[in-house]
Amino acid sequence: MLEGETVPVPLTFVAAHLAPAEDAFERRNEDWRGIVERLVFSTATTTNHEEDSERAALLGSSTTTGEEEGEGVFTAGSGYLFLAGDLNYRTSNTQPQPADFARFPNLDADASDPLHYSRLLREDQLIREREKGQCFHGLSEAPISFPPTYKYKLGARDPPQWKFVHSRWPSWCDRILYLGSSTATVTPYRYDALPLFPTSDHRAVALAAAVVLQSVQAGPSDSGIAPATDVQQQQPQPAAAPFPIDRDWKRKRDEARRKELVVGGLAYLGLTWEGRRYLVGMVIGGLGAWFMLRSMLSV
Fold first, then answer.
1. What are phi and psi of 277, to 5 degrees?
2. Alpha carbon 125 to chain centroid distance?
3. What are phi and psi of 48, to 5 degrees?
4. Which among 111, 116, 195, 118 has a CA at the least distance from the CA of 159?
5. What is the pTM of this model?
6. Phi-psi region of 73 (alpha: psi -120 to 50; beta: other; left: phi over 0)
7. Nearest to 32 by CA among 90, 70, 73, 69
8. Whole-angstrom distance, CA of residue 205 vs CA of residue 149
9. Range from 62-66, 207-211, 235-239 carrying the lowest mean pLDDT
10. N or C terminus: which one in the chain shows less Cβ crowding within 10 Å?
11. What is the DSSP string of 60-119?
12. How many CA atoms lie within 13 A of 105 on its CB side?
């Protein structure tokens, strides 16, 4: 590679929905560990089309040839990592009691008010667990300057109607974290919560940030002169993964895919009008076939 040549810096985006409930912070930590151990980007080549891959997932076999290799989220291209979603970390380890309702933050409170949301942010499980080294190792988060994103009453359309339900502690469940390196830095500009949708009890969050998509690679020049020894390599170095990749990740991924297809099929049949029509049609067709077969055998 020529001196001064630019190389692309990859970006990895992970969407996650971790375990719910106030007391399940340790399960959420384990969910993060599972992401690091089993979210692998395969480098093996495939010989069949995508349809064959789907069929192989159902049958429990693999369409890959050769040795199965892959990179985890901490080594995928040695670039940027963004983790976003309903991470579900709460502001208490127990559900609120009636006496706690008076401590819920007031969305209209001034920063000096004891009911300002910043007081509750001090109890945030994600910040606590990350500082203890239990989750999201090496990842960063822009400063939080918005109210809790969960749990709101459904049906509210305007900000004056946004109210927290009393069955859950108001919490910053929805988060965006990121990871760069010494030479691939993330510069956050704005981190905020979006308006509440009437059909949701969450407020989604958004992050505006700047990243460098190309880095300068120091290397031998076309003149044959070696680069100076004090020239720092500009290729981003991968962060150390807190957990090793699970050696059995491929089998576990196939199992998860099969379960996903089964659950998705059942949800389609039971929760959608189109699926229910198919289900009713199959039941009627099955009963009709049974009565026809019974009448033929009784003749």
1. -65, -40
2. 17
3. -120, 175
4. 195
5. 0.75
6. alpha
7. 73
8. 8
9. 62-66
10. C
11. T---B-S---EEETTTSTTSEEEEEEE----S-SSPPPGGGGGGSPPTT--TTSTTSHHH
12. 28
Cα–Cα dist 65/44, whole Å = 7
Report residue 52 as tokens: 């064959």
Tokens, residue 245? 């990749």
Q: Is the peptide bond before 151 cis (omega within 30 degrees of 0)?
A: yes
Q: What is the DSSP string of 175-227?
A: EEEEE--SSS-EEEEEEEEPPPPTT-SB--EEEEEEE-SEEEEP---TTSPPP
Type and span of the H or E element at 294: helix 273-298
Q: Give the angle subtended at the CA of 130 by the CAs of 126 and 131, to the nearest 5°.
A: 120
Tokens 């998705």 sit on residue: 264
Angle formed at CA 85 by CA 150 and CA 92, multiple of 5 degrees: 40
Q: What pLDDT, on the 0 to 100 scale, is given for residue 26?
A: 97
* Residue-wise pLDDT tens digits, 95-148: 999 999 999 999 999 999 999 999 999 999 999 999 999 999 999 999 999 999
